[in-house]
Amino acid sequence: MAKVRDETAARCMVRSVPTVGRDASCAQALGRLSERHWDYAERVVVLDQSGHFLGAAPTSRLFSTPDGRVGDVMERKI
Fold first, then answer.
1. Distances in whole angstroms, Cα of residue 17 to Cα of each of 7, 38, 67
2. 33-37 contacts, C-beta under 8 A, 24 or more apart
3. What's the predicted TM-score (pTM) here?
4. Residues 54 and 46 sit within 8 Å (Cβ to Cβ)
5. Residues 6+ away with beta carbon under 8 Å from 60
6. What's the rounded Cα separation, in Å, for the pair 60 and 7?
7. What is the pLDDT along the chain (78 residues), one digit of tens a residue?
């Protein structure tokens, strides 16, 4: 891996984030959080079947709606 200079945008880049599909339950999305250490886990990224970004679901909404669907609590504009 190339060395990243401190003043570059790459230095701030986040590499590992939890991802789920929009049809996943909020409980399933929360389960992803415990699978490993994530660089950023305030939101779970929602992807379509092709891996394209659809939105993000804040973990606070996932905790408050564990029986809901991720697609219903995600934010499309972030």
1. 23, 5, 22
2. 33/59
3. 0.78
4. yes
5. none
6. 32
7. 556 555 676 666 777 889 999 999 999 999 999 999 998 889 999 999 999 999 999 999 999 998 999 999 999 976
